[in-house]
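Researcher: Next entry in the queue.
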Amino acid sequence: MDLLAMTLFFGFVLAMLMIIPRLRKSDHGKPVKSNIINKACKSYTKDEVSLHNKRTDCWIIIKEKVYDVTSYVEEHPGGDAILAHAGDDSTKGFFGPQHATRVFDMIEDFYIGNLVK
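Model: Structure for this entry, 117 residues:
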């Protein structure tokens, strides 16, 4: 009887681990917003991106891709440096020596579309 109860318990726990989706966390422990729905390749003009140029609404361009980094502005380890090119092309700054290689994976969580050429 005890073996049956333990088997059922562990089976239940295993099922819950498979069914309940895990929230991805940023390095600071906060949930990261997923843009999977937006990855259908929406296109933005440079003029559209330029409207999102403040702390509470911050988009950047990196290599012809558009990212909404608004939710990351307050967590940015470089402080307000992320705002230097808000609403504009941040490619040069993004690939600067100050960034660890993990930012190349992190940035994809903020991708919202491509820049129209």
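Model: Strands lie at 43-44, 53-54, 57-62, 65-68, 111-115.
Researcher: Noted, moving on.
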